[in-house]
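Late entry, written up from scratch paper. The run itself happened at the end of the previous shift, but nothing got recorded in the book at the time, so transcribing now.
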Amino acid sequence: MSEERLGDKFLRKLYEKTVNNGIENIDREEIGKEIGIIDVLMDNLVDELTSEGYIKKLGRTNIYLTNDGRKRVEI
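Output as recorded:
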């Protein structure tokens, strides 16, 4: 079994913290800390997931799942 992609791990944690708790958006730093990534790596990952259409940025640090992001996690 292959190791879970970091992007998938990030999306799953974002889903757990928002959708499962009825919260619309969350600070990306909180997600990064919980899965063990910080700074430049997290910035790059957020940019990648944003460009792929799985998350959207809200202000400087808050993010939320798009419908495509939710579908990817729910598969």
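Strands lie at 26-27, 55-58, 62-65.
(Scratch paper discarded after transcription.)
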